[in-house]
Amino acid sequence: MKLARFLGLAVILTGVFFAASADGADTDGSNTDAIGGEPQYVMVTRLSKVYTNLDPKSDIIRLVKKGEYLERLSKGDLWFKVKVDGRIGYLETKDGKMVSGKGAPVITLLLYIVLLLGCAGGVMLYIKKQQIAPSASAVDDFDDDLDDDDNLR
Prior knowledge:
Blueprint: H1 2-21, E1 40-44, E2 48-51, E3 60-64, E4 69-75, E5 79-84, E6 87-92, E7 96-99, H2 104-132, H3 136-141
Antiparallel strand pairs: 1-4, 1-7, 2-3, 4-5, 5-6
């Protein structure tokens, strides 16, 4: 029963942890800043170009790789206005996804792995202690005839 409670608590804490640290994306397309005035970011979803103007024929500031985070300044229907290498540029919306924080998924994954390893270690320790320690009923049922010297005399 203790093991079931322990595992239940671990699952609940994991869910709370993920809910608190989830990398939330803006779904309404609004241009609001994150809580606390932190800048919003665009996570690049594929190899893309950041242009100097709202025209794909304009100069390219640089190529950005999938998984890279760029500071988002604003969002239009087809373009994100972003900051890259200290310059302001434009990235097509099909090439990125708005997120509230940068780099959070990797940290979340690492913390989740540590949590799972801790739970697994706790379960293994619990099982090992149960195998080593005799149960209370086994101790009560054990009849030690050594103290029954009265019957021998």
